[in-house]
Amino acid sequence: MPASELDSYERDWSPRTGLVGDAGHSRPLGHSLEYAARLLATERAADAERAARIIEAVCALQKLEPSWKFGQFPMRADLAYHDRNSNLFLLPEMADLLKRYAARLPAPTARRLRDSFRRAMVFAERRWDEEIFDLHRDGVAYTNIFLLYVRAMFLGGAIECEERLWRKGEAQWRRWFNHVACYGLDEFCSPTYSRVDFEALTHLLRLARDEAMKGEVRLALDYLAATQLAATHPVLELPACGSGRDYRRYWAPREGRPWVMMTPDDDVYALPEAARREFAGRVFPFEMSGRATGVPFRFRSYQESDALLGTMTGGHYFPQNVHVLAAVGRGPAEREILCLPGRHCFQSGFTAQAGLSALCFFTRAPNSYVRTQYIRPDAQTRRLHDDWPLVVGVTPGWEEVECRPGRLTLRAWGRDAHVRCFALNGTKAEPVELARARMSGYQRDVEVYALPPEVEAVICLTGITGAKKRFAPSSASVRRKGSELRIASGKLQLRLFEQASGELTELYEEDWRTTPLLRCPAMTLEPGALTARAANEFAAVRKVDLL
């Protein structure tokens, strides 16, 4: 644990609650248990006493009443909403305390921690009992949380010496690995959740008892690391593509640095040499692309030494989506960023990209996410009406060059960023004005340009040019034929199919099932390649249960 993190635990520990964090400044319960472990490592009596108090305070928050939620912890002490993933994040800290420090705890506290761990495992095993089967989250849901579920089974098997949990973990690992090898990582390029994947996978390398499984884990890590390195701009130090589940932590200078730039090698796993070498000596212009999930979603990045444009397409994924990310500058402290949407929203987005230009389409059309997962009262209608209007998020250093109906031009670091906005009215694309505003983003207020709230669907042309250079895409054409909608601007084109429910599905010119999960100079990964390689390399050490 970094010294700065320990200092923050010391500073935020509350004698009143016994937890790290207090009213108005709550922190995940895992931080409290991490602090307890650090205190126990000092072997000082006073520190052990505080650690025991922390553990008792955490255990007291577990639900004990007989119900479906039996054994569940809140993610934070003061949250009314109980996230069903909370136990999966907390179990590693509980297991670490039991494995390393149970003997240093007072006997009643050690017993309470072990009992609490067992109850927490009961709830963790239920995690997928009621997951809804739909197009966007096909039982695996989102891959990082399912990976934490797999790890929980291994931790339960190790702490409880229970073969059933070991076997369940190994079987669920197979499910996760096959899903990822076929469809890709669901949190494609997410700065937050790809790190969760990484930490869980490296933990599984230590837990796995099967050498063949360890080999598969390393293959998955190589894929994850190569994707993150390719998607990261090495000069501006930010994820340079559209992404799912992105919390926009890049608003301030030097923020948003992806985990892959901060992860040192250790004795368990080293970043793939080819991907690391390419990243360290990146040759511009640089392009990468990939896809993920069974819908699918596709993401792209085009990078020059002082500029980038990245996109994702496929519709709705999560409210934290970034469908378009553009940035210019000279480094992590000297950069300006523009993104669409500028804040979290539930609207669907589709993009087509070529170099530093992109065609985007956003709509209030409902989607399966709000109909089956995060159910909204208006989700059964033809349009969603909250989390709107769509906004363009911008960092404060841009100079406004032009802002009039249909045209927004911003300038910074010798580059111009262009946004052309058109409201879709039948088959007509009509210029629409963007209004400067300040709105709440993720944990901070951000500058935005907002569309009028009455706009139902909008076409955006976005791109980066040299300062005072002409931005070629200036208009868009729209054609409808039955249930198919075509939107085009120059060589950029989107094809969408409108279902009877009103939800839009993207139609691709090629069979997406044959396109690589990742294509970049360091790696081309075809669908199923991970399972094929695993079968070839690890057949000799694979344990086969003939029964």
Plain-language structure description:
This protein is an alpha+beta fold and 547 residues long. It has helices at residues 3-12, 29-41, 45-59, 86-101, 107-125, 143-160, 163-183, 193-207, 211-231, 273-280, 368-373, 529-538, and strands at residues 21-22, 25-26, 232-233, 238-239, 286-292, 297-304, 307-313, 324-331, 334-340, 348-354, 357-363, 391-394, 399-404, 407-412, 415-425, 428-431, 435-440, 445-450, 457-466, 477-481, 484-489, 492-498, 504-507, 518-520, 523-525. Strand 17 (435-440) and strand 18 form a beta hairpin. The radius of gyration is 24 Å and the shape is globular. The chain starts with a helix and ends in a 9-residue tail after the last helix. The mean pLDDT is 89.
If helices are DSSP runs of H or I spanning 4 or more residues, what is the number of helices?
A: 12
Residue share in helix: 25-40%
Kindly report the average pLDDT value: 89
* Number of beta strands: 25
The secondary structure category is alpha+beta
Termini, distance in Å? 44 Å
Q: What Rg do the Cα atoms give? A: 24 Å
Instruction: Tell me the overall shape.
Output: globular
Q: How much β-strand is present in the residues?
A: 25-35%
Largest sheet: 10 strands, antiparallel
pLDDT below 50 for ≥5 consecutive residues: which ranges?
none
- Strand arrangement, major sheet: 17-18-12-9-8-7-6-5-24-25
